Amino acid sequence: MTNTMLKICNLCTGYHNRKSLDHISFSVKKRELVSIMGPNGSGKTTLLKTIAGAINPLSGNMILQGQDTKIIPLKERSKKIAVVMQFQQAAYMTVEEYVMMGRLPFFKQFQFFETQEDRKITHKYLELTDTYHLKDLPFNQISGGEKQLVSIARALVQEPQLLLLDEPTSHLDIGHQKKILDLIDSLKETLGITVLIVLHDLNLASEYSDSLVLIDQKNQTLFSHDIPENVITQETIRQIYQTDVLIVKNPVTARPGIFLTRQKKT
Amino acid sequence: MDRKIKKWLIVLILLVISLVFVSVLALVTGSSKIPLKDIFDILLNGEETASYYILTGLRLPRIILAIGVGGSLGVAGALLQGMFRNPLVEPYTLGISGGASLGVCLTIIFGLHAKIGVIAYPVSGFIGAGLVIIVVYTLSLRGGALKPDSMLLTGVMISFVSSSLVMLLMAISKSDDLHNIVFWIMGSLDEPDLTLIKLVSAGSMLGLLISLFHCHSLNALALGEEQATFLGIDTARTKKILFITASMLTGLSVSVSGIIMFVGLIVPHFMRMVVGSDYRILIISSFLGGAVFLILCDLFARTIINPLELPVGVITGIIGGIVFIYVLGKKQVRL
Fold it and tell me: What CA–CA distance (Å, rounded) separates B77 from B91?
C-alpha cells in the first residue's frame, strides 16, 4: 500500500487557457498537513480548485490514492475530496441544513430526504467543530469565525480523505485562527485526514504544517516543497516576496518564525 | 417525524385543499349559476343539459388549463430564479414570450389562422418561443457551459427586439387584426381545443417531475456554482436541463394562453416566504400555488364585470403586484 495521498505530475492549469501555473509537481503523504504559500496572484487558489475539480487542468496529471482524477466521476471525487473556500454563500439555510448539504454526494439516485444516518453524521461533526449549539440559527447570521468552523463541519460531513482549505483564517482574530488551525491539525490524528491548505500567514504555516509548498509567481512554477525549516529562510523569502525579514526560531516548538522590520526613515 | 417535514406536509395539504376549494368555486361561479349540490347529479345524469355542457365543455377545461399554465409558470419561475440566483428573473425574462408574441402576430397579420384554423395561434407561438430558446441557448454556450449573465442579457435583448417588432406590426395592421393581437398578448384561458389543454397539462406534469429530480442540484447551486461542483453536481449539465425544462414549460403555456404576467415572478417568491428556500418543497408548492393563483385570477377576470370577460393577464398583474408589495412590506424576500 502506497503512503501517497496525492501526486501532482507536471500540472499546468489556469483560467480560459491562460496558464497561471506551469509544470507543477509534488506529492502529499497520507495524514500530512501541507500548506501552499506564495505571493498574491501566484495561483494558490487556482491550484486548489484544480485539485478539487472546479477547473480542468490544461495538461498534466493528478493521482489521488493511485487513481488518475480524470477517471474519477465528479460525485465519487466529492466523496474523497472536500473543499472549504474562503467565502461562503448560503442562501437562507440554517446551520444544520448547510452542514447537511455535505451529505449530498451520498444521496442515492431517487433519494429525496436525508436518512437518520446522515443526520447522525451531521450532528457528530457539528459537535466536533464545537458548533452544535448554532444548528438552528440562520447561516448568514453567525460570525465569520463561526462560519468558517461550520464550513469545516460541512466539509467533514463529506467524510473525505483529502481536505482542501483556502485561507481559512483570513480576517479572523488570533483566537479563532488558533482554534481553527488546532482543529484542522487534530483531524490528521482523529480522522486520518490529509490536509492541503492555502495560507498567507507564514508563521501559521510554519507552525502547523508538516511541509510547505512555495509557489514562485514570476516563473509560475513550484519554488520548493520541503519542511518549514528549509523553506522559511531569509534568502527564500527575499527571492519570492521581495522583502527582507528576520527569521527567529519559536522557543517552544523550534519552528522558524518571521518578523517584519520597519524600514527606518533616513 | 422531523419538524421540517411536518411543516412541509402541512403546507402541501393546505395548498391541495386550496386548489380543490378554488376549483369548485370556479366550477359553480359564472354568468350561469350552478348550485354546488347539483354538480354531481349534473355530471352523472345530465349529459344532455346546458349545465352539463357549461361544466364539462367550458369551466372544467378552463380550470385544468389554469392548473397547467399556473403550475408551469410557477415552477419555471422557481427554476430560473434558483439557477440565476436572481430574484428578478421570471419565465418571460429570457425572451420566450417575446418570440411567441411575434410568432402569433405574424400569423394574425398574414391571416394564417383563416387558412389552417385556430390551431395556428399555439403552433406559431410555440415555433416563435422555440426559436428564441435555440438562439438564447446557442449564444450563451461558452466552452460547453451556459453562461448565466450572457443568457439573461441575450434574453432581455430578444424581448426588446421582439416587442418592438410586435409594436411595428401592430402599427401597420388592420383594426380587426390589432384587436386580435392585443387580446392574445394580454393572455386568456379561453381555449376551445381539448388536445391543447391536455398537451399543456402533460407538459406541466413532465416539467414538474424533471424539476423535482433536480431539486438537490438547485439546493447545491444556492451555495454557488463552485461549491455545487465540490458537492459532486455537474453544474454545466444541470443548468442545461433546467433551462430547457423552464423554457418548455414557459413555451407551452405562452403559446396556448398568451402572456400571463407576474405568475412566474410572484408565486415562487411568495412560496419562499411561506416554506423557505429548500427546492424540495419550493418546486411543488410553486406549482400548486401558481395553479391556485391563476384559477382565482381567472375567476375574477370572468366575473368582475359580468358578462364581459377581462384578460386574465391583466388581472394577474394587478392582483399579484398589489398583494406582493403588501407582503414585501411585511416580510423580507429570501432567495
Answer: 5
DSSP B2-59: -HHHHHHHHHHHHHHHHHHHHHHHHHH-SSS---GGGHHHHHHH-TTSHHHHIIIIII
Per DSSP, the three-state class of A73 is coil
pLDDT at B334: 54
Please report the pLDDT score of residue B333 as a whole number.
Answer: 52
- Residue B177 inside a domain? The answer is yes
C-alpha distances in angstroms, A219 versus A13, A58, A94, A216, A223?
14, 17, 44, 6, 9
Q: What is the CATH number of the domain that holds B154?
A: 1.10.3470.10
- Separation between Cα atoms, residue B111 and residue B180, nearest integer Å: 11
A74/B232 CB distance under 8 A: yes
Higher pLDDT among residues B34 and A128, named by residue: A128
Within-domain flag for B265: yes
In a domain, B307, yes or no: yes
From chain B, the residues in CB contact with A74 under 8 A are 229, 232-234
pLDDT in tens, B180-214: 888 888 888 988 788 889 999 999 999 999 999 99
Closest partner CB to A104 (pick from B216, B280, B335):
B216
Q: What is the mean pLDDT of residues A126-153?
A: 94
Does the ipTM surpass 0.90? yes
Q: How far is B228 from chain A (nearest CA, A)?
A: 9
H/E stretch holding B252: helix B235-257
Question: How far is the C-alpha of B93 from the C-alpha of B42, rounded, in Å?
Answer: 44
User: Structural domain of residue B82, as residue ranges?
Assistant: 3-328
B residues 177-216 near A, CB within 8 Å? 215-216
Chosen from B230, B274, B283 to mutate, greatest number of chain A CBs within 10 A? B230
Using the beta-carbon criterion (under 8 Å), do A91 and B85 form an inter-chain contact? Answer: yes
Say if B227 is an interface residue toward chain A (CB within 8 Å): yes
Q: Which positions in chain A touch B284 (Cβ < 8 Å)? A: none
Q: Which residue of A has its CA nearest to B272?
A: A92
Distance from CA of B141 to the nearest CA of A (A): 14
Given a cut of 90, whether residue A92 has pLDDT beyond it is no
Q: What is the mean pLDDT of residues A15-26?
A: 86
Nearest to B232 among A78, A92, A93 (CB): A78
Total number of domains in chain B: 1
Residue A45, pLDDT > 90, answer yes
Is B232–A101 a contact, with Cβ atoms under 8 angstroms apart?
A: no
pLDDT confidence of residue B208:
97
Residue B85 lies in a domain: yes
Partner residue facing B276 (CB), from A53, A76, A92: A92
Query: Does position A187 have pLDDT exceeding 90, yes or no?
Result: yes
Task: Give the position of cell 403546507.
Answer: B11
Cα–Cα nearest to A205, from A217, A194, A196? A196
Q: With CB atoms and an 8 Å threshold, state whether B85 touches A90.
A: no
Q: At what angle do helices B194-213 and B235-257 cross, to 10 degrees?
A: 160
Listed ranges B44-48, B109-113, B127-131; the one with the highest mean pLDDT: B127-131
pTM score, whole prediction? 0.90
For the segment B132-141, the average pLDDT, to the nearest whole number, is 90
